[in-house]
Amino acid sequence: MSKSLYEGQKIDIYFDGEKCIHSRFCVLRLPQVFRANVEGPWIHPDSADVEELTALAHTCPSGAITYVRKDGKEEAAGPVNTARVWENGPYEVRGEMTFAGSAAEHPPMKRAVLCRCGASKHKPFCDGTHAEFDFATTGEITTRESEALEERGGPLEVTPLKDGPLKVIGNLEVIKGSSGKTIDRQAKVFFCRCGASKNKPYCDGSHTKIGFKAD
Length: 215
Known about the structure:
Blueprint: E1 4-6, E2 11-15, H1 25-29, H2 50-59, E3 65-69, E4 82-85, E5 91-99, E6 109-114, E7 155-160, E8 166-176, E9 182-191, H3 206-210
Parallel strand pairs: 4-8, 5-7
Antiparallel strand pairs: 1-2, 2-3, 4-5, 5-6, 7-8, 8-9
């Protein structure tokens, strides 16, 4: 599914269906703009204030909704790079992300939801498959001892290693899914993406034992 453009007078909205995980913030918070289950165009950018629309886009965890403002203002990454570990689900990463390795064809993003169950058909992104086979793992990981980072923002490079974990380089705070409390602080981390690690969210080499295959 390709990215779709919905043009407005003051702002254009882009929607990427392959990244959407159906969190439904859009249709619940701005239903006059995001009109679910209708024939024809379902996004109407002129039906809300530009500031409301951009604020809504920023709540989209997967980056499926992006925008181009016609006043030239661009979405800025937040001051703190975070990887939120969802209960029974993916990693929600926020920061100035670029992708390397097999994912290098993807454009830079500021919001992404990355697969950690191993079953997504759109790796490295989550496509909701974890819900189909009841992937079960906690998001409330025990906090590790870690020193405060000198810088909490800055660029992140995400590399899905072939048949292995997600390597993330850059200042990153790993946070609990529901509470948002800090689990860890790292400048380089290897996240499990096969779903089998006994040290989730970190890789412990289990991808080799189970014969995990992914670019």
